[in-house]
Amino acid sequence: MPERKHDITVSARTVYIPEQSDLRAGRYVFAYTIRITNTGTVPAQLVSRHWIITDANNQVQEVRGQGVVGEQPMLRPNESFQYTSGTAIATPVGTMRGTYQMVAEDGMQFDAPIPEFTLSMPRVLH
Questions:
Q1: Residues 51-63: tens digit of each pLDDT
Q2: Of 48, 91, 96, 116, which residue is 20 to 30 A from 56 by alpha carbon distance?
């Protein structure tokens, strides 16, 4: 198996936030905790993000910005960074996916994919 110099693994956990949601107004709020791990062999810095958030009506929000939660973490090989943020959608179920734009210590720029994950109110999906 070839050595992966520029490799980032991303995992997510989500939770529905009922106290911030307003079902009658079509506002469903979710918190998500992301863990970003440098599984490559070269240190790399997260410089920006691109999210694609889709609700059950196929309404898409795209979010781009610098860093995550005000930080641009530098990850050495096998090092992780974890943060929690949130989003609101208009339906009880939706998805999020995207990419983190990374710059490795050797100057290589690359995208780290964020695998799609589900946002769901409890007892909506089985």
A1: 999 999 999 999 9
A2: 48
